[in-house]
Amino acid sequence: MKVPIWFTKDLFQNALKTFYKNPDIEVSSLNTQDAIPAGENYTSDLFRTTIYFRKKFYFFFSGRTESISVIVKCGNEEGGVKEDLAKKLNLFEKESEMFGKTFPAIYEILGEHYTLSSKCLYTSLNPHSIIILEDLTTLGFNVLPRHIGFDLEHCFLVVEKMALMHAASVIMYEKDPSLLKMYSEGLYGNNDLTRQWVAAGYKGLIDACSRWPGFEKYGYKLQALGEQALERGFNAQKRKLGGFNVLNHGDLWVNNMMFSYFPDGKLKDMRFIDFQMNIYTSPAIDLHYFIATSTKIQVKLDHIEIILDHYYAQLIANLAKMQYSLERVPTREQFKTDYNYRAFYGLMGAATVLAFVKAAEGRTDASFENIIKDESKEGFRYHAYNNERYRKHMEHLLPYYDSFGILD
């Protein structure tokens, strides 16, 4: 990616002054490079910038140069589907709101800082959309390879953090409902562009099913639904009147979670990243999406119910600790009924995002635009839906979702 010309010393100097609450900071130089390889991010441009700076002591700048590594997230300004999607879904507005208002309110409730996210140094929407975040890799956090997926231990830690964020959002809503106004729509916003993407995903899956012996019937069922497949997926994410709702992350796939480990290799901690798709609705949304996109095949085969049980137990424990009346929380049976009711959301995630997750690394044509428009056998859509990794996951997921009766 080309580094924007507006990445100036003044921009980062102002960010550091705000973050350190110190007006006497002077940036001497910057070093910027791509934060992730091509084909690993789809809604914004990501850079890693090392900032070299000095602080003033009394009347003089220190001779000692300090440095800090930051992740810079900015809107793509070259046109095309990537920019259109960001605008239609208000992605930067939502993430600015998350770091500017929502997370401070959540951390006030939790009484512990930055256990869910990175710190935000700076955010602005004008004249350019930009968010500057601490570089979690400097704290020992890293993203796992997206092809592999998470084992049960990693899944447990994810849903523990998920339950913590969800529970805190319940308390936050009680205190100030206005803090969640921005999150009425998530990744699958009901607009023309998103509908084109989801429809292309279903078409890619239907075509792939015709090539998988024994799985043709799922393609036929999905094809027979026609427009209903779109409507059922979009309806599955809607809030129910009087239902139990939380602030969902909304985009819990492998690349949006970072993990740290002890020296002996044991799992230590994790953080969520990328808060552009948050949606205030049933917690089943995060669970379906996470299970579809981010778990190992063996977890999908053997441990889905265990993960759901662990999440529910953690949610109840957190809400009880926060002195929330558990009479207002769904019973385990009601929770499972709601999860089942929203199963089409999991299928929609599997038919769209999972194809990106299992695609080969280094494909520079990995984009929403090519999923929508390129139907050639050499194109990204054909590759995404016909590679072996994707097929193996869908061979379990298709019967799983069909067992809910959602394809009938």
TrEMBL record:
**Top-rank taxon, per record:** Eukaryota
* Domain CHK kinase-like span(s) in chain numbering: 131-321
Pfam families, alphabetically? EcKL
What the entry lists under PANTHER family is as follows:
CHK KINASE-LIKE DOMAIN-CONTAINING PROTEIN-RELATED, PROTEIN KINASE-LIKE DOMAIN-CONTAINING
Q: Under what name is this protein listed?
A: Uncharacterized protein LOC115889272 isoform X1
